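Lab manual, section 2.4: Encoding a predicted structure.

Procedure: take the sequence of the chain (237 residues), apply the prediction step described in section 2.3, and record the output as structure tokens. A sample record is shown.
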Amino acid sequence: MEPIIHLKDVSMVYGGNGTRTTALAGISFDVLQGEYLVITGESGAGKSTMLTILGGLQVPTEGAVRIGGSDLSALPADGLADFRRKTIGFVFQAYHLLPYLTARENVMVPMSPERVPPREKEERANDLLASVGLAGKEDRLPSQLSGGESQRVAIARALVHDPPVLLADEPTGNLDSATGEQILDLFSGWHGRGKTVLMVTHNKANLSRATRSIRLRDGQVEEDRLLQSFSAEPAAV
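Recorded output:
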């Protein structure tokens, strides 16, 4: 089976003129559809850089990145935007909700370019908010939501286009342990529905949810191990 994610000799170097910093140094690995991969490592190991590359938010200095059969380095700017919209759901530690929009409106933001009746967009947003436990809170602003509720809105927004891959950068980092477990329950549920999950985390307790872990050190893969078996699904990209 062809992997849904393929990285080959990926490097990322910042700066120049004697101030070069290497964030990633020749990373290679594959991810199969249906894996739940947790990426760990100390601060500065390259975890977040790798996630932004996988999300098509930046292009590596060297190496190949293929996701769902698409060569990200070969895509023009509009092609990358289309790739991100259809293939990747990205959940950030800081939520990145627009403060002047309601929960429903925040979820609807990725649907803005679509020629779909507003009512259909609203119904889609309402359904997703209900699926993450926020039924009845669709009209609340981010300032009226708790941290856990804000993260649930961010997850609902990431799922708008039903992407096959979910990327999460420290999604429980700003939450207390009980709320963090509830957020992890959501990721486990979506993984159970066939989503491929890649989560960057400092919390080693999150490994209990994953099927596989990769530990980065100084921009390289220090360890790659299988944690539990999983059933690979055909990539729906």
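Check your result against the sample. The two ends are 14 Å apart (CA to CA).
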